[in-house]
Amino acid sequence: MPKMKSHTGTGKRVRVTGGGKIVHEPAGKRHKLEGKSSTRTRRLSGTEEISKADTKRIKKLLGR
């Protein structure tokens, strides 16, 4: 039986915290920043937790 391989692309985009939560950086802070308000870019900085609906799918991609 072949081994399950972890999805390398997902591994680069998300990380698992010490408590087991999966966090990612929100989209929309790479380009066209002049057109976005400072409030919006501040809100997009940092990390946020993956939604409950996606957690099972992401864990499977990570091989957990």
From TrEMBL:
Record-level Gene Ontology MF annotations: structural constituent of ribosome
- Signal sequence, start to end: none
Assigned keywords, A-Z: Ribonucleoprotein, Ribosomal protein
Recorded GO CC terms: cytosolic large ribosomal subunit
Q: Which GO terms describe its biological process?
A: translation
Look up the domain of life of the source.
Bacteria
**Annotated region described as Disordered, given as residue ranges:** 1-64
Regions of biased composition (Basic residues) lie at 1-15, 29-43
Q: Does the UniProt entry include the keyword Ribonucleoprotein? A: yes
Q: Where is the composition biased (Basic and acidic residues)?
A: 45-56
Q: Which family does it belong to?
A: Belongs to the bacterial ribosomal protein bL35 family.
The protein here is known as: Large ribosomal subunit protein bL35
Q: Which organism is it from?
A: Asanoa ferruginea
